[in-house]
Amino acid sequence: MMTEMLDPVAKEQAMDEAVLQVQGLDVDIRTPKGTVRVVSSVGFSARRGKTLALLGESGCGKSMTAKAIAGLLDPVASVAGGKAYLDAQDLFSMNGKRRRAVAGEGLGIVFQDALAALNPVYTIGTQLGEAFRIHRGASRKQAKAEAIELMRRVGIPEPETRVNSYPHQFSGGMRQRILIAMAVALSPKLLIADEPTTALDVTVQAQIMQLLRKLRSEEQMAVVLITHDLAVVAEEADDVCVMYAGNVVEQGSVQRVFAQPTHPYTKGLLSSVPTDAHRGQGLTSIPGSPPELSKIPAGCVYQDRCPLAAAICREQRPELHETGPGQRSACHFSQQVAEMKPIDDSATGEDAH
Amino acid sequence: MLTYLRKRIIASALPLVVVIIGVFALARMTGNPAALYLPLNATDTMREEFAARNGLDQPILVQMAQYFGGIFRLDFGTSMRTGEDAATMALRAFPATLQLAATTMIIAILLAVVVGSVAAMKPNGIWDRCSSFISMTAASIPDFWLAIVGIWVFAITLGWVPTSGVVGAAAWFLPVATLVMRPFGTLVQVIRGAMVSALSEPYIKLARSKGATEYRVIGQHALRNAAAPGLTVAGDLTVGLVNGAVVVETIFGWPGIGKLMIDSIMQRDFAVLQACVLLTAVAIFILNILIDLGYALLDPRVRPSAGARKRRKARAAQGPTQGSDPRTPQLVGASMATTESIRGN
After folding, report:
1. Residues B339, B345: Cα–Cα separation, whole Å
2. Other CB atoms closer than 10 Å to residue A346's CB: what's the count?
3. DSSP summary character for residue B237
4. Mind telling me how many Å the CA of B102 is from chain A's nearest CA?
């Protein structure tokens, strides 16, 4: 199905569509005990009108990656290396003024917790219109009109009266809609959605994802969706980038990666999804837990939990390499992942190679 | 609003009565005014006459009852010293105190907002350390010491400003500079703390993600949130000043309520002292209401939801109300959630 990707011309076009290109991104956090690398040589690209999912457990560095790209890292964190191009503009080499010009106009971001992300003391109208005041020099009146229009677009009832309400007067789902409206206000080329539905209940989640999909196709934005939810990735994303302990372990199209994972971690994640589960039957999970970021071992980051781990995995960190059309994996034994046994009886899988 | 006012008045009435009784009793313990107002060789008849003229021959409970009765007729007694109406004297002195308090607080707040915000931009940075040192010092210098040193340096040695009085702008310099220190020092620390916590909130990131300048991020998004704790403390500090900056007013001969109070105590001029206490108590009561209103103005979450009321009106105009009463924010949220799930997709 992805054979056209092999065609050099088609590949060239695909590259042209790339709105965001991230290469070898490193992010460090300064702690009292020293510097910790929380994101390590992460690279991916997000295409126009498509959704790229950054998938991983909490603490795997996906949010840090997003914040680094958006220029919103906390003061203790900093970009230690790598490049990020938004439409050929190098984001990390920009000065503050140019960076501010890109914020909102070229790149919008939707935060996770809408109640905390909205300023409690300003009306929704003020906050929605702010981007127009900053970037377009709109008057208060124009900004308010734009705010009402945005509220209508994201499906908030009675926008003319609700525009003067404060964040605490809205429900969680409505607040998330408002945040999304804020992020897309200036029709940015890239939208980063950082776990946009985590704080919401399931029915509202579906509505929010549908809204994101609608806006993506209307604006032809590239969307970077940060999530730990495999179902969301399967439904919403075109491409996926699986992260583990600050590293990308596998990337490619969602169809390809989910059908034929070539990294033991991806495989492990996928087999943890309960399908055909019966009452009383135990749920499968990956044994162990991710390493502390300050104690990442030499060699492969996944070695401690990997059923395929061998001597080479302890010495040499695997590079991302092509394992299929548009699919790349960072595993020395990527060829053997397909034959890997399901996890629940893989306790003795150590000598599988 | 009226309910709120009624509640506040009822809640303040009892403390006010207690304060008046306390002042009434304490003032009379300072001694017999006759000793001050009559010549040393006054006869007992003269003393009795004086006491009877000023109602001091009655038992203290009767005096108190008469005084409370007078309050309801807006009769606050007359000054033994000048024979003038006590309330008039207190009211005449009050503007000087209010002007001094207002000038002091405006300067203190403006300075504290700037210094506190700059300090909060880089916690533990060089500016933060400097402002911390300055504000701690300012908040802990005793005002009588500062006033005397100020007079010595600026009035006596340099001769730039008068030592006392209210004539001309120069006369304001020393009293204001002395009084500004404590509110400034205290407010810098409060605002710095509130700004540091506001600046670490996610809404600051959201503002930055829209391309807001640092000025906008700090001066609007963070400061408006940090203003509420600042207001609380500024209110308390203002109360302290309105009460009459007794020491500073006395040192600089500032004809305010603080000085009048001290003079009345010295002269055992009970009616004037009581009028002063009553007047400042009422002023503090009004000030507290203003602080509450300011609080609601700054933070919509403590308002009795004007938005909800407006919406209710709008809904009533459109047709029958939707059953739920959207008066409290929680209920508004809940009714919005239902609307959302009903609208569905």
Report:
1. 12
2. 21
3. H
4. 26
Cα-flanking dihedrals φ and ψ of residue B115, to 5°? -65, -45
Q: Which of A103, A164, A166 sits opposite B209 (nearest CB)?
A: A103
- Residue A241 half-sphere exposure toward CB, CA atoms < 13 A: 25
Interface touch A168/B329, C-beta < 8 Å: yes
Q: What is the DSSP letter of A277?
A: -
Residues of B in contact with A120 (CB under 8 A): 203, 225, 299-301
User: For residues B320-339, b (16+ Cβ closer than 10 Å) or e, as one string?
Assistant: eeeeeebeebeebbebbbeb
For residues B180 and B143, what is the distance between their CA atoms, to the nearest angstrom? 10
Instruction: Name the residue with tokens 């690209």.
Output: A45
Cβ(A177)–Cβ(A167) under 8 Å?
A: no
By C-alpha distance, the chain B residue nearest A121 is B299
- Give per-residue burial for B83-106: e unless 16+ CB within 10 Å, then b: eebbbebbeebbebbeebbebbbe
Question: Which of A108, A166, A206 comes nearest B300 by C-beta?
Answer: A166
Residue B160 Rama label (left phi>0; alpha psi -120 to 50; beta): alpha
Looking at this protein, which amino acid is placed at residue B123?
P
For residue B208, which residues of chain A lie inside 8 Å, CB to CB? 71-72, 103
How close A117 comes to chain B (CA, Å)?
A: 4
Burial of B236 (0-12, 13-18, 19+ CB in 10 A): middle
| Residue B73 · residue B67 · CB < 8 Å | no
Token digits of residue A287: 């044994």
Long-range contacts of B203-206, Cβ-Cβ distance < 8 Å, separation of 24 or more = B203/A116, B203/A117, B203/A118, B203/A119, B203/A120, B205/A72, B205/A111, B205/A117, B206/A111, B206/A117, B206/A118, B206/A119, B206/A127, B206/A179, B206/A182
Chain A to chain B, count of Cβ pairs less than 8 Å apart?
118
Please, which residues have CB within 8 angstroms of residue A207's CB and are 6 or more apart in sequence? A173, B340, B344, B345
Is the Cβ–Cβ distance between B255 and B204 less than 8 Å?
no
- Going B166 to B170 to B172 to B175, the CA torsion angle's sign is negative
Q: Which amino acid is at B179?
A: L
pTM value is 0.79
What are phi and psi for residue A42, nearest 5 degrees? -90, 130
- Which strand (E) or helix (H) includes residue A85? strand A77-86
| DSSP class per residue in A163-202 | TT--GGGS-HHHHHHHHHHHHHTT--SEEEEESTTTTS-H
CB contact under 8 A, A109 and B209: yes
- What is the residue-level pLDDT of chain A in tens, covering all 353 positions? 444 445 555 555 555 588 999 999 999 999 888 899 999 999 999 999 999 999 998 889 999 999 999 999 988 899 999 999 998 889 999 988 999 999 988 999 998 888 899 999 999 999 999 999 999 999 999 999 999 999 999 999 999 999 999 999 999 899 999 999 999 999 999 999 999 888 788 888 888 999 999 999 998 999 999 999 999 999 999 999 999 999 999 999 999 999 999 999 999 999 888 777 677 777 778 888 888 888 888 889 999 888 888 888 998 899 999 998 889 999 999 888 877 765 544 444 344 44
Q: How far is CA B29 from CA B24, B26, B40, B310, in A?
A: 9, 5, 20, 57
Pairing of strands A327-329, A222-227: unpaired
d(CA B269, CA B27): 9
Cβ atoms of A296 and A246 within 8 Å: the answer is yes
**Residue A298 burial class via C-beta count within 10 angstroms: exposed 0-12, middle 13-18, buried 19 and up:** exposed
Whether residue B202 and residue A113 make contact (CB cut-off 8 A), yes or no, is yes
